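Thread title: Can someone regenerate the structure for this chain?

I was given the following input by a collaborator and told the matching structure tokens would be attached. They weren't. Posting the sequence so someone can regenerate them.
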Amino acid sequence: MTAPEASAARTEARDKLEWIADTYLSVGTPVQQAAARLLELGKNIQSQIAARTRANLVWLASAIGADSPCRTLAVEGGWYATVQVPRIQREEEWALELLREENVLVQPGFFFDFESEAFLVLSLLTEPGSFQEGCRRLWALTAAERS
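Best answer:
Regenerated them for you:
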């Protein structure tokens, strides 16, 4: 493909064509040949992910007591759960304190475009024993900070 002299229209057209070419690249032959087997293998992985996320979510819902300063938001799908924590510090500070003091990794809500404080996002993909222990540490820290 050729284009006349450099111009804003030419640059814009080139950028749009590059985007189209990258977005709609065809799948490589090896992947096409393996697609049926990859999809078949994916079923087992999908069921494992679904079972783990469901088990962690059920545990989480039952683990937060009425006296806890935390509450979970409704989960509509995906592999994250959101916990609202006391607004005594910013969610970024909660996340850093959990990592530094308790060796627990959570994401602050602003990573997920929450517009207010203070929310922490937990991965339901975590191995159940580690997930439960991390939540217990979160509950203990929030209870200690509140008192």
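The domain at 8-146 is CATH 3.90.1150.10 (Aspartate Aminotransferase, domain 1).
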